[in-house]
């Protein structure tokens, strides 16, 4: 112990990459437990900017074993390209370990993701079109292929053949798209198998042994709580569980192995893709969040939607994840505003909600109830201690703590590792 889960408390893009990267140096293992290359982290190291989609951010540190857990779905070409890119930047991927039970994103998954979005028209989910949903659908319907299948040619061919009976029909007859042959897929994936063999292992015992030895394990969530397939704004969600319980399932550890759950929330809020968003702004303030906060997707380059901080959502994230700590990122972006708003409740018809409404219709039509606080209008990107922050910024953080009911133990005031205020989040005394 300790096992620490780091996850998004909003709709993803909370700045998890920077915090994972910052914390990783204290850990022995950093494990991804869900999602695939729909995720995108930008890690800034000095003057270098690195983008990661699949490989855990811990890859930057020699002391970290980065693990891709069983709960992830993997596009093997993207994975190999990412390994090659990191290696060409002088970052060794030798320590990377990939679960033999992780599922594969197949070419037809990408086709079906894009085709299904196209067919939905105005009702589209706004997926990343990386094949995530179709890959998880096949996993659940027991038609998926896993990493371990790559290493038995006849089983691989058999499973691809079984899947193609249905997939080719759907591709051709429903969408009028080209079909696949077993030979094409087997030839392509055999090359990937050769390349990836050294990284494959049974990662659940690896992580459990590490925790039993008192090594430190960081479970790195992708996306965010409101994109969770069970607890998010269904159907406008991803197809996995980015919530804390997903870490146990997706890495193969028991929930008793998790000691702390750190939720990352931006000082305002954004989302990409469709779906309800009570505090969304379509005015100049929204544009300020986008332009000053550089709110464009790392994976797809899409302009994000933006709005004021929603404390109702954070409270929900505290509840469904059992958050023990909050980290507020991008506080510096709020320096632009003379007055700052926090959504503390919703109104719908004649009802007021202080928690996320149980019925989707109420959430879709929820009107935010705002509390206003004075802004601080000075550059805070150089602050390194809580007391360095202007009183109005301190008051804002304290109010967020009060509303969430958990302490804000980290605050980010800029994109660099150093631009962080530490307020008591678990740090390792390496002499122990
Ligand atoms: P999918 O995960 O590609 O199926 O997309 C489903 C929904 O999740 C869409 O609204 C995406 O925009 C959103 N999404 C997926 N990955 C991320 C992410 O890393 N950050 C933010 N939103 C994401």
SSE blueprint:
Elements: E1 3-8, H1 16-24, E2 29-32, E3 41-45, E4 48-52, E5 65-68, E6 73-74, H2 76-88, E7 97-99, E8 103-104, H3 107-120, H4 132-140, H5 153-174, H6 182-196, E9 200-201, H7 203-212, E10 217-220, H8 244-251, E11 260-266, E12 268-271, H9 284-292, E13 305-310, H10 311-321, E14 325-329, E15 339-348, E16 351-353, H11 360-364, E17 367-374, H12 391-404, E18 408-412, E19 420-422
Parallel strand pairs: 1-10, 1-11, 2-5, 2-10, 5-7, 6-8, 7-9, 11-14, 13-15, 14-18
Antiparallel strand pairs: 3-4, 12-13, 15-16, 15-17, 18-19
Bound molecules: inosinic acid (IMP).
Inosinic acid binds at residues 12-13, 38-40, 125-128, 130, 132-133, 222-223, 227, 236, 238-239, 272-273.
Count of helical stretches: 12
- What is the makeup of the main sheet? 10 strands, mixed
Name the average pLDDT: 95
Number of strands: 19
Q: Helical amount among residues, as a percent range?
A: 25-40%
**What is the end-to-end distance?**
13 Å
User: What's the oligomerization state?
Assistant: single chain
Structural class given helices, strands, pairing? alpha/beta
Poorly predicted parts? none
| Each distinct ligand | inosinic acid
Write down the overall geometry: globular
Cross-sheet strand order for the largest sheet: 9-7-5-2-10-1-11-14-18-19
Radius of gyration: 22 Å
Approximately how much beta-strand content do the residues carry? 15-25%
């Amino acid at each position: 112990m300790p096992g620490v889960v780091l996850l998004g408390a909003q709709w993803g893009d909370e700045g998890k990459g920077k915090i994972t990267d910052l914390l990783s140096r204290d850990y022995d293992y950093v494990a991804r437990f869900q999602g695939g290359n729909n995720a995108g982290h930008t890690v800034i190291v000095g003057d270098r900017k690195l983008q990661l989609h699949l490989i855990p951010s811990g890859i930057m540190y020699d002391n970290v074993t980065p693990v891709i857990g069983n709960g992830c779905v993997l596009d093997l070409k993207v994975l190999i390209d990412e390994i090659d890119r990191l290696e060409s930047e002088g970052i060794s991927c030798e320590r990377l370990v990939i679960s033999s039970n992780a599922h594969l994103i197949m070419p037809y998954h990408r086709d079906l993701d894009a085709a299904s979005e196209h067919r939905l028209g105005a009702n589209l989910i706004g997926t990343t079109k990386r094949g995530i949903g179709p890959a998880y659908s096949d996993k659940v319907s027991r038609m998926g292929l896993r990493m371990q299948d790559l290493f038995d040619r006849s089983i691989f061919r058999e499973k691809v053949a079984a899947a193609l009976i249905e997939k080719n029909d759907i591709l051709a007859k429903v969408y009028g798209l080209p079909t696949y042959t077993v030979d094409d897929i087997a030839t392509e994936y055999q090359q990937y198998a050769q390349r990836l063999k050294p990284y494959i292992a049974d990662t659940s015992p690896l992580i459990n042994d590490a925790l039993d030895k008192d090594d430190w394990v960081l479970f790195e969530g992708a996306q965010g709580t409101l994109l969770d397939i069970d607890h998010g704004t269904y159907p406008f969600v991803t197809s996995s569980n980015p919530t804390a319980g997903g870490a146990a399932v997706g890495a193969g550890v028991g929930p008793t192995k998790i000691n702390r759950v750190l939720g990352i929330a931006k000082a305002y809020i954004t989302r990409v893709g469709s779906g309800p968003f009570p505090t969304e702004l379509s005015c100049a303030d929204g544009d300020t969040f986008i332009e000053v906060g550089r709110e464009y997707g790392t994976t797809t380059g899409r302009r994000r939607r933006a709005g004021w901080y929603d404390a109702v959502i954070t409270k929900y994230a505290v509840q469904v994840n059992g958050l023990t700590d909050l980290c507020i990122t991008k506080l510096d972006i709020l320096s632009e505003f003379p007055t700052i708003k926090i959504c503390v409740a919703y109104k719908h018809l004649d009802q007021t909600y202080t928690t996320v409404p149980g019925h989707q219709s109420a959430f879709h039509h929820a009107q935010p109830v705002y509390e206003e606080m004075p802004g601080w209008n000075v550059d805070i990107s150089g602050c390194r201690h809580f007391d360095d922050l202007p009183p109005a910024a301190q008051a804002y953080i304290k109010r967020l703590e009060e509303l969430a009911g958990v302490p804000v133990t980290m605050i980010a005031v800029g994109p660099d590792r150093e631009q962080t205020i530490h307020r008591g989040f678990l740090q390792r005394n390496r002499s122990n």
